[in-house]
Structure formats: structure tokens, C-alpha cells
Design brief:
It is globular and about 65 Å long. The chain has three domains: 3-80, Rossmann fold (3-Layer(aba) Sandwich), CATH 3.40.50.2300; 89-104 and 176-264, ATP-grasp fold, B domain (D-amino Acid Aminotransferase, Chain A, domain 1); 109-173, ATP-grasp fold, A domain (Dna Ligase, domain 1). It has 290 residues and is α+β, with helices and mostly antiparallel strands. It has helices at 10-14, 16-31, 64-74, 83-89, 92-101, 119-129, 152-162, 228-239, 279-288, and strands at 3-7, 35-39, 52-55, 79-80, 109-113, 133-136, 146-149, 168-173, 179-186, 189-197, 206-209, 212-215, 217-220, 245-253, 256-264. The longest helix is centred in the first third of the chain and has 16 residues, at 16-31.
């Protein structure tokens, strides 16, 4: 019998779907014969007493969840997400550089510093990437600070706003698609698959429209209905980051597939796992029974 710590915060349990997912994880661990402990930030010292740690709060190098991950790592405790994966996936430039080094198919991508926000450079970007261009501030999550620019004037306006938060920005070719594949990969192996259906009002899986948050719909997809090329690309992308648990976002356009992002700490509370009832068993086995 082992002790599994699940690191959470107030925001995690304030959402009923996230709370239900946490209870499913606890029930799976206990059915496997393990003890489960929910650990809040004020109880962070309990981590060193655990045999494994599963982080279910927002991961970011500036958040307490990263400290929790580092504590587990220092004590040799298996942890999802590991500090290395958090550092990479929380910085889109770092993430895209890893994907590029791994020769993973991504949209045409350029990195822009403040000194490059000139009319000549912006015109060149539109010539190379087309219109619209998707601008991303590197620390973005949940589609925040991701916007489209249809012309150089709009590009500069968005970029000047984003550059206040980062030394460098990501400019990316726009890939039109009504949905994103989300492929879960654990330790380099396929774990689950779903589609994020993009709301018609936006190009992102989550956006603020007229003051209201619009979310994508989630459709779990059986593995046999997922193209092999999608699974292979997702695994290749995950392996370029590490051996943790990742959610790979992939778009298809004109017969080509592109990795849009690799996410650490992927969501599992919106039905992503409907066709994969063993997903928590696999995660727990990876953490505790290796």
C-alpha cells in the first residue's frame, strides 16, 4: 500500500466538474489499494511523506504548484507534472523550440523581440505567414493573450500590448479548423483522445465574447476512430518534451497535421476520458507501481 498525494487549491475544488474528476482519481487509487491524500498549499510540507504526487492545480513556474513539484523532485518522489515539463510547457517559446528540435510538424512560427516591431519586419511576417497572424504571449494559458491580427496596424497594436509582459512574442501561421484534436500521452504512450470543438464565435477553445466566457465542446473519441498519424504525431511531440502526462493539441488542414501546443497538466474534467475509464488507473500505475 502506497501514499498518493493529490495537490490541489481552492480554485480546483470550486469547479464541480474538477471536483468530480478528483473524486474519480481518489476512488481509482483506493480501489488499487493505495491511500490518497488531498494536499492544499498550506499543507505543502506533507509532500515529502508521499510516495507519489499528482498535481491538479494550475501549473506555472510562478505558482505554488511548481514549488510542490520541485519539493517532490528533490525528495525523489515521482510527480506529475515534473518541474522540467512545467518549465517548458509554461513558456510557449521554449515549448516550440523543443518541438522544432524534435522535427515535429507545427505551423510556420517566428519569435519577435521588441526591437523587431518595425513596419518592415511586420510586413515581412505577413508575407511569410499570411493573414491573419496568430500572436501569442509566451506565458499564455487557456487561450488568454492569444489574438489574431489581420493587418500590420492591428499586429502592432496587439504586439505592443503583449510585449509589456514578455521580452519576446510568438507569431504563427493561422491554421483554420473547426476543432482541435486533444491527445493524451503518458510516458510516451497513447492515453486518451478527444476533440475540442471550436466555438463558432472564435478561433480559440476558450474566449471572452461580449463579456461572456465561451467554452469549446468536448467530444471523447475511441482510439480506433483516431487516425494513426494523429497518434504518432502526438507521441512524437510529447517525447520532444519529456516522459510525463501531456495533452497534445493538433489541427488538420489540407491533409497536413500540425501540433499547436503541448500542455502539461491536461484537463480531464470535461469528458476527455469518457471512452477511457482506466485513465486514472494508468496514471496511478505510472506514478506508484513502476
Amino acid at each position: 500500500m502506497s501514499n498518493l498525494g493529490i495537490f490541489i487549491d481552492r480554485q480546483t475544488i470550486s469547479n464541480s466538474r474538477q471536483l468530480t474528476a478528483l473524486l474519480k482519481c481518489r476512488d481509482a487509487a483506493e480501489a488499487m489499494g493505495h491511500n490518497t491524500y488531498f494536499i492544499f498549499p498550506v499543507e505543502i510540507k506533507k509532500i515529502y511523506k508521499m510516495d507519489a504526487l499528482f498535481i491538479r492545480s494550475r501549473t506555472d513556474p510562478m505558482n505554488i504548484s511548481y514549488v510542490a513539484s520541485k519539493i517532490a523532485h528533490w525528495h525523489g518522489i515521482p510527480v506529475i507534472d515534473d518541474p522540467y515539463s512545467i518549465q517548458i510547457c509554461s513558456d510557449k517559446i521554449n515549448m516550440y523550440l523543443h518541438l522544432m528540435r524534435g522535427k515535429v510538424s507545427i505551423p510556420k512560427t517566428e519569435f519577435i523581440s521588441k526591437s523587431e516591431l518595425t513596419s518592415e519586419h511586420i510586413d515581412r511576417l505577413f508575407n511569410e505567414l499570411g493573414a491573419p497572424i496568430v500572436l501569442k504571449e509566451p506565458s499564455t494559458s487557456f487561450s488568454v493573450r492569444v489574438e489574431q491580427a489581420y493587418d500590420p496596424k492591428e499586429f502592432l497594436k496587439v504586439a505592443m500590448r503583449f510585449i509589456k509582459m514578455s521580452d519576446c512574442l510568438t507569431a504563427q501561421e493561422y491554421i483554420e479548423s473547426s476543432y482541435d484534436w486533444r491527445i493524451g500521452v503518458l510516458n510516451g504512450e497513447f492515453c486518451y483522445a478527444c476533440k475540442y470543438i471550436i466555438p463558432s464565435e472564435t478561433f480559440k477553445i476558450q474566449a471572452s465574447i461580449n463579456g461572456h466566457i465561451v467554452y469549446c465542446a468536448v467530444e471523447s473519441i475511441p482510439k480506433e476512430n483516431v487516425p494513426k498519424e494523429i497518434i504518432d504525431l502526438a507521441i512524437k511531440a510529447a517525447n520532444s518534451i519529456g516522459k510525463g502526462l501531456y495533452g497534445i493539441d493538433i489541427k488538420e488542414s489540407n491533409g497536413t497535421r500540425y501540433v499547436i501546443e503541448v500542455n502539461d497538466n491536461p484537463s480531464l474534467e470535461s469528458g476527455e476520458d469518457d471512452y477511457y475509464p482506466d485513465v486514472y488507473n494508468r496514471i496511478i500505475t505510472h506514478l506508484l507501481e513502476r
